[in-house]
Automatic annotation (TrEMBL):
Lineage top rank: taxon: Bacteria
Positions of the OmpR/PhoB-type domain: 1-97
Organism: Pseudoalteromonas luteoviolacea H33
Alphabetized Pfam families for the sequence: TPR_4 (PF07721), Trans_reg_C (PF00486)
SUPFAM superfamilies hit by this protein: C-terminal effector domain of the bipartite response regulators, TPR-like
Swiss-Prot/TrEMBL keywords: DNA-binding
Residue ranges that the Swiss-Prot or TrEMBL entry lists as coiled coil: none
Name of the protein described by the UniProt record: OmpR/PhoB-type domain-containing protein
Gene3D superfamilies tied to this protein: Tetratricopeptide repeat domain (1.25.40.10), Winged helix-like DNA-binding domain superfamily/Winged helix DNA-binding domain (1.10.10.10)
Amino acid sequence: MLLFGPFRFDAERLVLYTGQSQQLLRPKVLQLLAYFLAHPNQVIKRETLLSALWQHGEFREAALTQSINELRQALGDNAQSPTYIRTLPQQGYQFICEVHAAKCATKRAKQIGVAVSLVAALFFAVDKIHAIWPLSSSEQIQQKPALLILPLQNETGVEANAWWGYAIESELKAQLQNHYQLKPKNQAPELLKLPAEKQPHTLALTLKPRQQRFILQASLDGRTTDVIVEQLGHNFSEIATNVLFALEVTSDHENKTAAPVKDLSDYYRGLQALNEHGPELARSYFEAALVRVPEHLPSQLELAQVAWQQGDVTQAKARFDKITLGDTQDGLQARYHLYKGTFEKAQGEFEAALTSAELGLRAAQQSQQIELIASAYQLQADIYWHTLQWQDYTLAMNAAYALIGSRSFAYSEAQRSFYLANPPAAGPQEKNHLNLVQSKKVLSQAIDYYRQISANLELATSLFAYGQNYLVPVNEGEQSLLEALDIVADSGNEYFKVQVLTYLGFYYIQLHQGEKALSYLDQVQIHESFLPATEQLQLLKAMAWMDIGLVKNDQNALHNAKRQYHQLLETDYISPLTRANTKLMLAWIGLKLGELETAHTLTEQALTEYQRFELADVAIYAEYTKMYIHLKQGQPEQALALADSDNTDAHLMLFYTSAAAQMINNESLAAHSKAKLSALRNSDGLLQQLDEFTRLVGHTDKNILDLLDAPYSVYCQSKWILE
């Protein structure tokens, strides 16, 4: 037993204790701790740890970072002032806490009579870990060969036969999942773009007509086989077994016990309809499936999901409550908890949603299905983001990234990038995980792929995320969002439609087109149970009226916005962040109306909340708003006291700093700030204002501060190229 700080570590069994309580950690995290304890006070390079513990795996770097973070969290360590694990930039890590070996008085130790050294014990633990403790699910998965099953190519000439592909694919997955790391279909766009040597094994399926029968052609790694299909009936298991046997693929077909044949054709037709058309058409197929097989849990689950997506909250709750899992397969249990957790999150029931996410993660890990595990981590990240738990959010997104790479951010993170309506992706100081360049590439590939295979709902999801990526030119992003709306409007997925309409509203607010924003926001019809979305809609409608008032100097519009903001502050449900955002925007209205003291008080309140929740990217709005107020009050020194020398990419912060410096004749600071501003894109207009301001300062009695753009001139620091 090894002792360090208040902890005890059983090096043989790889168990960490605090007092009498066992710390529950992933085996890989315990291996990492064992390695550190075997090398106390030594500087260990990242590559050394990767070679020792992550010899294989596509996302080794991210997996190591995640495990370091989890270990620090378990030990209560702080990376900035560490007690246990010190990070040495460009060098590696160092375990800096003193480690002792406890004296062993067990009967077994006396019998053996051998003192095992600290290092030897730990090396034994690391070397023998796989025999002592099973690998975690993600580690087991990554040791298996990767296999991608491509969507069935339906060459029968009858579009309605495409459902059969969903059925045979489901059976193939069931027989292969214990032997292969099955890559999800929606990962196909990026996997197929990889160099040939890095691509997974690929199983391609084609259904062709032949006289009065069908031929299923399957190919894998250069091997091809044709299997006769007498009719598109219900013998999916037998057909899948024949395909895998002919291709000499390792599977569970030899041990598979024949199950009673049930007619599930309507269920698979429902899956096809859901993917290609949406829940409106799919619902009738799932209902028909339950008529044939009333106990069919997958159909029950899809109907529960469809119900809330279509806005029927009461029916959705009833359907979820009616489902009994019993000894259901792990994968299906995971889907149940994740579907339910997503529904709870949409209602703002974050505590219940987190419980569902944790149950879903546990079942997903047992099922060893990558997409389910990653989805569970993403759901956890969404909940932590809503509840402003940034450390937990970072760990969850790291875990998703370790499994599926940048695709874990391409969708969920895009929806966090519209700042005041939603905080930026990182929440805390650094946006470590928002890789918009890579997300743009992934989404572009996905859009092309889903167009080819006519997967309309996947296409709409990709278009929606692509339109929210601010590296996409404005006109291109607008067309992407509008196409997504066209698709989803006919799908019956009302919740998705609400999301697209809501974002379009914010999109046009950013472009200072308040009337156009309202034209989309007014189309939103949402059930009152969806509290976060309802709150966001209220905020954006008030923003649209505020934009009209600010741009057109329309007093009625400003007072309308002000009234709506106050109504939002008085609602029973309002998140802390929305409350802060609302106060900041009320301050902007106060600025426009000349109410400087009111604006200052509201800005202070908003800034306090932003700083409390470590929202630096949003706090910058409040900080430069305060700077502007001080400038308007003739207090340039106070404005400069708020300037952040570390912030080099907030246009208005640099803009006001340069103007304030000019007012007190600090030409060096004025020039320095102006130079930083000129290095930013879309700064030409601000630079022209500074030139005019510099020319007039001290030479006119006019209120030259009116030359400067006010804080409300921009709602998003997104550096768009306005075309």
